[in-house]
Amino acid sequence: MLYLIELWESVRDFMATGGDVLWLVAGALFLMWAMMLERYFYLSFVFPKVRKKVVENWLAREDKTSWHAHRIREAWLSQAKEQLTARMGVINALVAICPMLGLLGTVTGMIAVFEVMAVQGTGNPRLMAGGISMATIPTMSGMVAALSGVFFSTRLNASLKVSAEKLQDSLSHH
Fold it and tell me: Do 142 and 99 touch, CB atoms closer than 8 A?
């Protein structure tokens, strides 16, 4: 328990050093990872059942060669792809937003530096260092959040595409 309290204090100190923008970056990061984990869960546990049901329905059909059968196949594949790629646009947007939120932190931190310089002058480097760290920590945090999101969302996109192609290959048509 003491370890958790110390961990929380270090996180709180880090967030205080970086400014309020870090909470926005943390919120975007949390939302992005929650959505990516949901997609991994869907891909691992829900989609195999959906895939099995679609394949069973297709194999149960007597007519697999007519124009009407091909349209039904395409509709089922389209629905499955739509379910697979749900929320991927939001995930990609969050990946793109994280560096922008970091840059917002840079701007607010630099404004703090300029305020200190306007009030105190340039003679107090300690006060300016606080603003400079408030300017650089959110940028670093936004970049780290975006990099983690880019890697895993790219991997997730590839897995979703492979699953959709496997489903398409499972529905044989002539």
Answer: yes
